[in-house]
């Protein structure tokens, strides 16, 4: 069997090292130099040993490309230590989880590439070790079918472990391993969200999704099967990832378990998606990160092994023929990902833009929640492990000028709604929270969702429904949050709240730095960014500030590791009442040259309205669907008036509208509700 992945490409790759692949070769060279200076532990540490896999792969690839004996010697050193460990993995599921998956993959490729160059006894020892570890992994997958990663189709452990098993199966001619892995991959591709979203969040996207690409690459080379178009997830996932970039592209929106806001980039995966789908935007982001953010990603990221050990795949996957396309030239500034119930918006693709991300969906997203319920009913399987998905339906993150102002909690082991920018009921968050997997064993009907979505023309409107997530004993009838992002970057947030009896309602707003109270408003600051938070209803709420401590251990392989993060939390408490509306605006500005907030109440006979300086006006009626005010008469959930600017004509956003009049002129009249942006009447 020819060396896997590189057998028919060696001459092409060698020729490219001095022409088109010079930057990629430089990073592989630097990574191999780093390996040369390390002293890997000769006894299995408690911590993860995943990095042994890419070390063996990268050094073996460098040797096959250059023939330099030093790379072979280094590969032998790292491989011999890995082979000497009686088990792969120590603190959690030895031989049956991530450590074993990473090493099976990396050492299988190294064996495929080096077997004829290794001394006979070392080649035999490596083969025997791979057979042992592959058998352990395969047996575990078979024995645990219907539980944990063996059938957790939406989870990175599934993707990594099966890809390692596939690599070993191909290299060692164990078709039962690679066949099982292939069948699992097909199921994963069929069941992943077609909109490209990932409920595990950006950090686990960059950690897990490359393994789907690796497995597809192995499948195509070993079996001639091309599944790159299967299911739709991989074709669309780059667009989802792009919209998770905070302005400037260095940091990311941190919904879900995120070690930090920098652990989000995989240059190698961007290149593979660019090559597979001829996506010049992915090529642009790969180059942008490599040129501007690579070393920050390598050393400030909390995800290991990280971006540098992907150097081998970065070289193998780079396609210089893909044209570079700047997202600013082609990508809208708003997006909607229905499976995850997420909308994102920004005022532009420039570094100082204002941006928001707002989400609400069942655990794991709609597809996972629905499909997992079917597996549970039909087979008795538990396939949904949404441990990285937080109790965050209705929450949002917000920032401007390259800084975050309203923030999420990042990685958390005991997840709580109180860690997010949400509303509590009698001080309580969701039923079944305060644990790692807050969606486990919840009744099927315990779902949050996003409705009335408009994401177009620089506008975002959406309403999150999360009332079903609270303890039934609270008698919650409605916890609906409507969020509007205007083209100038302002936010309007309307919380519509109801219960069977009086309840205390608490609005939470978290930030990295303590807020300030100025003339009745809350001022958020972070570096060059600032925002003024203004509350319009109710009048009798009390406002206070405190801290929220988030404790996490982001890796089970190091049980002693503890990370503590402190959020600064503004709390708006509404005295017990069966119904309430909390109306809030957030206006971003520069902390270096701040401009005053302009929000004021619009005069409405029906519905709720906010008018901003410059003419932006937001009129809302998410429950009654009747709006009268500011020259508008409408049967609609929302009407948003956007004045003309130098770049855009005036326009009107309507949500769930059957009839809209503006200044006495009928813009819309029909039986079916309409949600879209309309031109301003001439």
From TrEMBL:
Principal localisation: membrane
| InterPro entries for the chain | Chondroitin_lyas, Dermatan-Sulfate_Isomerase
Q: Does the keyword Lipoprotein apply?
A: no
Location relative to the cell: Membrane
* Record keywords, A-Z: Glycoprotein, Isomerase, Membrane, Signal, Transmembrane, Transmembrane helix
MF terms from GO for this chain are: isomerase activity
How does this protein lie in the membrane?
Multi-pass membrane protein
Protein name as catalogued? Heparinase II/III-like protein
């Amino acid at each position: 069997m020819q060396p896997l992945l590189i057998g028919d490409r060696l001459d092409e790759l060698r020729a490219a090292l001095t022409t088109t692949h010079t930057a990629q070769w430089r990073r592989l060279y630097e990574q191999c130099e780093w390996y040369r200076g390390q002293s890997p532990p000769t006894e299995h540490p408690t911590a993860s040993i995943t990095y042994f896999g890419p070390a063996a792969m990268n050094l073996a690839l460098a040797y096959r490309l250059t023939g330099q004996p030093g790379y072979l010697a280094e590969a032998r050193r790292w491989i011999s230590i890995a082979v000497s460990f009686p088990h792969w993995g120590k603190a959690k599921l030895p031989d049956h989880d991530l450590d074993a998956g990473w090493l099976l993959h990396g050492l299988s490729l190294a064996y495929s590439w080096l077997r004829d160059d290794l001394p006979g006894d070392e080649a035999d020892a490596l083969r025997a070790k791979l057979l042992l570890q592959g058998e352990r992994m395969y047996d575990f997958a078979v024995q645990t079918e219907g539980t944990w990663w063996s059938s957790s189709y939406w989870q990175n452990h599934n993707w990594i472990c099966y890809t390692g098993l596939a690599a070993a199966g191909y290299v060692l001619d164990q078709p039962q391993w690679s066949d099982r892995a292939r069948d699992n991959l097909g199921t994963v591709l069929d069941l992943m969200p077609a909109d490209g979203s990932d409920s595990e969040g950006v950090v686990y996207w960059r950690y897990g999704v490359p393994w789907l690409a690796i497995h597809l690459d192995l499948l195509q080379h070993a079996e001639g099967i091309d599944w790159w178009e299967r299911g739709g997830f991989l074709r669309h996932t780059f667009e989802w990832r792009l919209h998770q970039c905070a302005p400037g592209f260095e940091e990311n929106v941190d919904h879900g378990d995120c070690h930090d806001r920098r652990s989000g980039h995989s240059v190698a995966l961007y290149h593979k998606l660019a090559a597979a789908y001829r996506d010049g935007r992915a090529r642009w982001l790969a180059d942008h990160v490599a040129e501007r953010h690579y070393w920050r990603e390598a050393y400030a990221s909390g995800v290991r092994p990280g971006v540098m050990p992907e150097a081998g795949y970065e070289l193998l996957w780079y396609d210089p023929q893909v044209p570079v396309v700047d997202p600013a030239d082609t990508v809208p500034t708003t997006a909607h990902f229905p499976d995850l119930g997420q909308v994102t918006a920004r005022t532009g693709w420039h570094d100082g833009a204002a941006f928001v991300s707002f989400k609400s969906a069942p655990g794991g997203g709609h597809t996972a929640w629905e499909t997992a319920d079917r597996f549970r009913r039909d087979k008795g399987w538990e396939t949904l492990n949404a441990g990285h998905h937080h109790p965050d339906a209705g929450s949002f993150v917000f920032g401007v000028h390259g800084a975050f102002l309203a923030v999420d909690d990042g990685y958390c082991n005991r997840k709580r709604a109180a860690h997010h920018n949400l509303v509590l009921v009698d001080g309580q968050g969701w039923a079944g929270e305060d644990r790692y997997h807050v969606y486990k064993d919840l009744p099927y009907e315990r779902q949050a969702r996003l409705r009335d979505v408009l994401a177009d023309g620089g506008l975002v409107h959406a309403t999150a429904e999360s009332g079903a997530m609270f303890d039934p004993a609270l008698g919650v009838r409605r916890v609906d949050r409507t969020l509007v992002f205007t083209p100038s970057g302002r936010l309007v947030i309307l919380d519509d709240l109801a219960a069977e009896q009086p309840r205390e309602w608490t609005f939470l707003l978290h930030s990295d730095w303590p807020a300030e109270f100025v003339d009745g408003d809350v001022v958020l600051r972070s570096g060059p960014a600032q925002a003024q938070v203004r509350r319009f209803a109710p009048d009798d709420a009390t406002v206070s500030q405190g801290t929220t401590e988030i404790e996490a251990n982001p890796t089970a392989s190091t049980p002693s590791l503890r990370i503590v993060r402190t959020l600064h939390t503004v709390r708006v408490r509404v005295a017990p009442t069966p119904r309430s509306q909390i109306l809030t605006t957030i206006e971003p500005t520069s902390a270096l040259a701040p401009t005053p907030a302009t929000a004021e109440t619009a005069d409405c006979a029906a519905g709720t309205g906010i008018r901003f300086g410059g003419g932006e006006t937001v009129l809302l009626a998410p429950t009654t669907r009747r709006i009268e005010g500011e020259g508008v008469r409408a049967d609609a959930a929302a009407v948003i008036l956007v004045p003309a600017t130098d770049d855009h004509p005036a326009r009107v956003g309507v949500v769930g509208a059957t009839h809209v009049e503006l200044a006495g002129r009928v813009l819309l009249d029909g039986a079916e509700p309409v949600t879209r942006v309309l031109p301003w009447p001439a």
